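We both want to read discrete structure tokens more fluently, so let's practise on a single case. Would you supply a protein for us yourself, any chain you care to pick? Would you write everything just below, so we can both look at the same thing?
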Amino acid sequence: MRNSQVTLLGALALALPLSTSEADGRKLSALPGAQVRWSELTEPWDSVPNGEPVAIRSRVQRDPVAVRVLELRDRDWRVRRHAAWALGELESPRGVRPLLECLEDESAEVRHVSAWALGEIKHHLAIRPLIERLHDHDPLVREMAVLALGELGHPSAVAPLMEALQQHGALLEPVYRALGKIKGEQAHSLRHTLEQELGLRQQDDEIFIGGLVMVRARQVAPSLPSLAAAVRSDDPSLRRLAAEWLGLQGNERAVDLLLGALRDPEPSVRTVAIWALDEINPSRPDLALLVPLLCIIVAVIGDAFLLRAPELRTTHT
């Protein structure tokens, strides 16, 4: 009974809202719930006995953030990675503390996606831990930490970003993009210097798919199995195109494919995968389902207007 209560109460504690004092800059070492270890929270759902813990379990199951927090301690790194992505898409400040712990996960895959998720939530408590990840032994975790710091947009990240660039030349493009999202003269000046010294061209950070978002294009989109094969192709242009389609389709079943694409050796594929993952948001309806419905509504309204047009003309004459 006691262990089951620790399991569920611990998960709820880690998913509680950040207090006002924390939001004002409390040190990470003093965060409430920091003493709770994932190893203490391994009790499976089915082992929770009848009684009070059942009510706690019911509360957790009704709370999407708490459910994902529970999944962050799963033994399978794939489950932890998917949960980190979902917390990033939910963009709840309650996901910050669990994700900060996941920056120390033994799996680089989990650390990688946790950094991305913290960039989505954009809470200032993630600044220091993300700066520490700039020196992660995994190069793609370092890259994602750079991009996440850019999303947070705090000037305090500028100096650490430049130091990381001096140590890891492969971070050139990510640092350039991150500086473009950080306000202040220092970031603007350094970005301009990179443009001049290294011949970088100013470019949009967003991915624009253009005509692919049209309803007709959605209707002829390839099947998920075909895209799954394409995203693993030896051809980087084909992998990028597959990632674009997966984002447009908005199918949550494609998440694991795209999470894998975040570690693609081709930077352009990784960039599109970031965009695509942001399109597949579990907290909003699937746009692929809404677009045809909106078209029907517009068509019905248009037909009704045309039917009444003679009547309206008669009234006005």
Notes: The longest helix spans residues 287-316. The chain has 18 helices and no strands. The chain has a mean pLDDT of 74. The CA atoms of residues 231 and 241 lie 8 Å apart.
